Every structure is written in C-alpha cells, then in structure tokens.
Amino acid sequence: MTEETDYEVIVVGGGAAGLSAALVLGRARRRTLVVDAGEPRNAPAAHMQGFLSRDGMPPAELLAVGREEIARYGVEPVRDRAVAAARVDGGFAVTLAGGRTVRGRRLVITTGLKDELPDVPGVAERFGRDVLHCPYCHGWEVRDQAFGVLATSPLSAHQALMVTQWSKDVTFFLHRVAESELSDDDLRRLAAAGVEVVSGEVAEVVVEDDRITGVRLADGSAHARSVVFVAPRPVPQTSLLRQLGAAFHETPFGAYPVVDATGLTSVPGVWAAGNATGFGEQVVNAASGGYRAGATINGDLLMTDLDAAVRV
C-alpha cells in the first residue's frame, strides 16, 4: 500500500532556491516538505563566491546551515528523488523513488540542471578545481594565471573574451569549432583583447603533480596553461514540469519553463526557481528566486482560503 501524506507546499529540490522557498514558507507557518536528492550542481566547487556575507563559503556548508534553519520552523526534509508529478483534486501528487506518494496544494520545482562536460581527458577530473566555467565564480581566485578556453561551440568566443578581465594571458582552443564559424565581430574582439586563437582538436588537459600544466592537441603540440575554462552543455532537470504540462521556451542553453516575475509557471499552482528556470542563475539569484516564490505562494494560499470562506 502506498503511503500518502498531505502538505500545503511541496518543494522539490534542496539547493539554495528550494531551501530559501522553504524557509519563507516555514516562517509563514505553512506545512512544507522539501524533497532533496542531494545532488547540487555546484558540488565540485570548494567555495562559492559573490554571495554577499557568504563569499568564500563552501557550498555544502551553505546547504547544511540552510537545512538547520528550515528545521527551526517545522519544515520536513526527505532525502529522496521525485520521479513523477500529477495534478489531483486539491493540488498535486508527487511520487518519490522510495515508493512514497506525497500530496501538496502547491509545488515549487527547484531541480536545477546538470553540466555535461566535453569528452576530453582531464576535464571532468579537474572540473571545479582548475577546470572552470564561470569567471564570476572563480576568476578572482585564478587571476593573472595562464588561461586556456576550450571551445564547445561558437558561443565559447564570448567566454574567451570575458575571462580577459581576469588575465591578459588567454589562449582560445577552437577544438572542434572551425574558425569560419566565428563571427567577424568575435574575431575582431579576440584580436583586440590579445587572445591567441589556436585551431585543432584538443586531445587532453595535461595534469602533473595534481595541477594543470598545459593543453595538448591531437597533433602532439602542447601549450603551457595553468587554468582551463570550458562551457558545459547545460541539461535542465525539468521532467516534472513537463509531466505537468508546463510551457517551455528555447534558449541557446536549453529549454526552460515560462515563468512570471515570481516564478509562477504556466501551470496554476506550480512555481519554479533557480537553475530550473535558466542557465545563468547563481547561488544568490537562486536564493532570491526561491524567496519570491515562497512569499507569493503563501499569499496565494491565504487569499484562496479567504475567498473560499466568503463563498461559504
């Protein structure tokens, strides 16, 4: 027999967005469940930067503190994966991988995205250490070192230009991108920024004594580098939203749900926040989006109940 439990709000995802939404809802005295699969996108990073008052804090520490905070307000956490969601009378039913079914009047989806890295030896092993993707997250820590930028698409030219703010020694490895695929504006800007453009497929990121020392091409040539930037292919984790029939819009970085300023999707009663809504959401943005969603949901529930009482 499947166990069913009723909540006012179910938050799927236990990262910064989900915990922030849960904190607001718990403080608003809403019976709230947080379903957390325990797979945060920023797990490979030792520290997070750019979050005012939390600059340099390890991501795992932020989440641990967040879980302690929501517990003060009676929010219930569960370490499990939500595998299905459907509309039912009075709200939504969410099925967990462990076999439990939970019901909620409102849903917040904060399942984020996964980074799909290029299949180049050394990239996955060093990701989050000296293979990086976001200069705003890690640029200060590696400033003035010898940067390499590994192209994954013509859009990588923008990344190569951006990182010149943190180092003037930048080499752009085209890998499997032809120079002819770059725009004239990109080529002019790369030249103006002093970025060296190198054609040819990258065979490996060279690692010696637990640090990157260079990039080797398939032709055997090597280029001394100490940091490599790469743009992973983002894979939004939005299967629950698709099951619920949410509307999506296509972007160069994947398909994301259509949401309003509060995170409300096209499905009444379902909000989304964090990287489930877009590629560029940093931790501080995700926390802010979760807060807005939580506050909006509380008001929505309150007015719904008051209107129902008036009709009676």
Description:
By secondary structure, this protein is of the alpha/beta class. It folds into two domains: 191 residues, FAD/NAD(P)-binding domain, CATH 3.50.50.60; 113 residues, FAD/NAD(P)-binding domain. It is 27% helix and 30% strand. It contains eight helices and 19 strands. Strands 1, 2, 3, 4, 5, 6 and 19 form a seven-stranded mixed β-sheet that branches. Strands 8-15-9-10-11 form a five-stranded parallel β-sheet. Strands 12-13-14 form a three-stranded antiparallel β-sheet, with no helix packed on it. Helix 1 runs parallel beside helix 8. It is elongated, with a radius of gyration of 22 Å. It starts with a strand and ends with a helix. The mean pLDDT is 96.
* Structural class based on helices, strands and sheet pairing: alpha/beta
Number of helices: 8
| Straight-line N-to-C gap | 36 Å
| CATH architecture name of the largest domain | 3-Layer(bba) Sandwich
| CATH structural fold name of the largest domain | FAD/NAD(P)-binding domain
How much is the radius of gyration in Å? Answer: 22 Å
Number of domains: 2
Shape: elongated
The portion of residues assigned to helices is: 25-40%
The CATH superfamily label of the largest domain reads FAD/NAD(P)-binding domain
Mean pLDDT: 96
Strand content: 25-35%
Major sheet summary line: 7 strands, mixed
* Element string (H = helix, E = strand): EHEHEEEEEHEHEHEHEEEEEEHEEEH
